[in-house]
């Protein structure tokens, strides 16, 4: 065991257990009588005649003297005065004797002699059988038998968590024991036997990482409040800068050219990450402005039409949390049955399911890292359909590799189960890892019409609808994502297909995309640009500018940037985006530059730093980020099944935080 302490950098255990073992080895010489008694088994304490009741001396001490000290009436909390504590210690043995006599008088003896152990009863025996069965079940579900393990396997798997180490980590762990044994031998020889090195000298440890196999820790709930700017200090700083500039040689508006902080406070958090907000408010604003009310019952048109159900898989998986003890095989089947039920309830004969894709240079990579921050869950390889799902479903889904493994497993299960569940005219189309697959009662075939390199399921849904709209007039999209709503409105307006009906289903409500598009008219084409500029998953929200305020101030505007952003021909200079920013901040009649507006808000209105528009350099980057996001959602790129991620100039501007 000692080499393991060396391998895992347990400094005190490594040192003092080595000393303890060497002292035990020396017992025949240093204490022969003690050694002789130890060989007879006299190294434990027995306080009763019961079987299997021997305990170590330190445990016996805890159960007797230390227990009396720590119990009610003991030394804990009695007093901070030395005299009072000394008096307690001097009389403790008398008190213990009185307690023992009193217990004997009332026949209360916790250690009454007997020939039975406290676990010799039916309940404990049944519990032991249950634990044994659980262990065997764990071995079977993970297809790992530790009793036949030879050490030559390619991977090491944790029997409790199911986490699997990589080949490199496996090799390091397997070699660690041999290396640690050598270090332990050197430690004993150099510091205890030859004493060439001081015992207290710094010990170089191996620090082998067992994290890939560790049980995930619970998230720590921090009581620390997020770092906030001090409004009073901001006003004082800006006032001093204004006075200093007015008395100096530089122009008076020079202070408004920069953000006066490391990161622009209006579009960035204190640590430099993008400022986040509630994008779902935009959906509420659209529904309120158009007067469209979601339906809580199935629309009447679904009774007579044969349609298709298009599903954002990840949106449903997040809500469909499995019950404790559910296996991955049962979950895949449950997921399928839930979707088929929705499909049949709405008189649909085709089910399209789009799964997110996780690329290395994803535009959404920073947002996914933010969502998984603080999570200690490891990647989990699904080795069997009988393997139990993790207890913390949300933490499991924050690890990208886990989602990739889950999607692959679900598709493999559907390939096997669907042909026996589907009716004659029904079909299931899956889109995973950019490959389309059709599953019917007949079997499984590729579906090349949906092959793509899309990253997000949002744009894949549009690709599926575009494939469906020539054969299905009634399409229901199962998703509650605001991004999906914006894309559906944008494309429905462009398609100009009166007979096509599209509904957005949020598990509980039906939203008519046609009714909203009719109410908005040409303004549908502004929504993608408006959404990106006012904040989404990949762009910063603007401090003080909510989605509702941004929608009200921009939806009826005539800014060409809202329609052109994302196109290669779009003009992204200050002259183009400044009027949009002025409208957002309520200065639609302002004539001048962004720097001049910042100065006006500082000098004349006493605005704080986070209430100002970002400085020109920061705004340039913000518009570039919005431009890149919209360019991915352009009709030309989606319909060509290919999204480009090669805009290096804009990718460099995707984060406010510098490195």
Commentary on this structure:
With 659 residues, the chain is of the alpha/beta class. The protein has 4 domains: 10-105, no CATH class; 139-213, no CATH class; 230-278 and 522-659, no CATH class; 282-521, Rossmann fold, CATH 3.40.50. It contains 27 helices and 8 strands. The chain has helices at 2-7, 11-25, 27-30, 32-39, 57-63, 65-70, 82-105, 122-142, 167-193, 231-247, 280-290, 313-319, 328-345, 365-372, 393-396, 400-421, 457-468, 482-495, 513-520, 527-534, 547-554, 561-564, 574-584, 594-603, 616-632, 635-639, 648-651; strands at 307-312, 348-354, 427-432, 435-439, 444-446, 474-478, 501-505, 510-512. Strands 5-4-3-2-1-6-7-8 form an 8-stranded mixed sheet, sandwiched between helices. Helix 13 crosses helix 16 (400-421), helix 18 packs across helix 19 and helix 20 crosses helix 25. The longest helix has 27 residues, at 167-193.
């Amino acid at each position: 065991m000692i080499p393991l302490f060396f391998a895992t950098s347990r400094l005190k255990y490594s040192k003092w257990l080595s000393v303890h073992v060497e002292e035990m080895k020396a017992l025949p010489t240093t204490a022969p009588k003690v050694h002789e008694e130890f060989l007879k088994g006299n190294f434990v304490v027995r306080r009763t005649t019961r079987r299997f009741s021997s305990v170590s001396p330190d445990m016996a001490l805890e159960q007797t003297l230390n227990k009396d000290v720590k119990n009610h009436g003991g030394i804990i909390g009695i007093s901070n005065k030395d005299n009072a504590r000394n008096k307690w210690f001097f009389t403790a043995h008398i008190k213990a004797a009185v307690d023992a006599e009193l217990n004997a008088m009332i026949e209360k003896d916790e250690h009454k002699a007997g020939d039975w152990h406290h676990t010799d009863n039916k309940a404990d025996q049944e519990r032991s059988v249950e634990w044994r069965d659980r262990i065997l079940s764990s071995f079977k579900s993970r297809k790992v038998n530790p009793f036949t393990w030879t050490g030559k396997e390619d991977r090491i798997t944790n029997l409790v968590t199911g986490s699997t180490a990589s080949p490199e980590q496996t090799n390091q762990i397997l070699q660690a024991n041999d290396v640690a044994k050598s270090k332990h031998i050197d430690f004993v020889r150099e510091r205890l036997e030859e004493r060439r090195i001081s015992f207290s000298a710094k010990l170089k440890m191996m620090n082998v990482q067992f994290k890939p196999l560790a049980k995930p820790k619970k998230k720590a709930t921090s009581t620390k409040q997020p770092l906030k700017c001090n409004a009073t200090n901001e006003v004082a700083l800006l006032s001093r800068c204004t006075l200093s500039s007015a008395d100096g040689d530089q122009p008076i508006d020079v202070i408004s050219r920069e953000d006066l902080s490391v990161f622009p406070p209006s579009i960035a958090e204190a640590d430099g990450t993008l400022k986040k907000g509630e994008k779902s408010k935009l959906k509420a604003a659209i529904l309120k402005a158009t007067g469209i009310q979601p339906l809580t019952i199935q629309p009447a048109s679904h009774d007579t039409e044969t349609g298709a159900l298009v599903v954002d898989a990840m949106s449903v998986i997040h809500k469909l949390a499995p019950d404790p003890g559910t296996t991955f095989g049962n979950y895949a089947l449950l997921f399928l049955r839930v979707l088929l039920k929705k499909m049949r309830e709405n008189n649909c004969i085709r089910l399209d399911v789009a799964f997110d894709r996780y690329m290395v240079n994803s535009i959404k990579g920073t947002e996914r890292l933010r969502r998984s921050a603080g999570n200690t869950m490891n990647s989990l390889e699904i080795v069997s359909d009988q393997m139990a799902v993790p207890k913390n479903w949300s933490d499991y889904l924050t690890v990208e590799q886990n989602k990739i493994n889950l999607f692959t497993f679900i598709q493999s299960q559907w390939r096997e189960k669907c042909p026996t569940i589907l009716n004659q005219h029904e079909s299931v189309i899956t889109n995973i890892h950019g490959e389309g697959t059709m599953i019917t009662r007949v079997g499984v075939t590729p579906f090349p019409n949906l092959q793509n390199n899309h990253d997000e399921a949002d744009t894949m849904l549009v690709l599926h609808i575009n494939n469906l709209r020539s054969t299905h007039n009634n399409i229901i999209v199962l998703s509650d994502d605001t991004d999906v709503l914006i894309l559906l409105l944008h494309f429905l307006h462009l398609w100009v297909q009166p007979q096509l009906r599209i509904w957005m289903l949020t598990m509980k409500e039906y939203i008519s995309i046609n009714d909203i598009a009719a109410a908005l008219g040409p303004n549908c084409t502004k929504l993608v640009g408006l959404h990106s500029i006012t904040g989404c998953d990949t762009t910063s929200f603007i401090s003080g500018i909510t989605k509702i305020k941004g929608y009200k101030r921009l939806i009826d505007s005539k800014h060409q940037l809202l329609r052109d952003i994302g196109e290669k021909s779009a003009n992204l200079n200050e002259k183009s985006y400044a009027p949009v920013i002025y409208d957002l901040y309520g200065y639609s009649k302002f004539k001048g530059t962004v720097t001049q507006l910042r100065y006006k808000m500082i000098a004349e209105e006493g605005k704080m730093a986070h209430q100002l528009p970002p400085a020109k350099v920061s705004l340039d980057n913000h518009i570039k980020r919005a431009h890149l996001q919209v360019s991915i959602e352009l009709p030309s790129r989606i319909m060509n099944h290919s999204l480009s991620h090669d805009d290096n100039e804009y990718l460099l501007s995707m984060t406010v935080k510098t490195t």
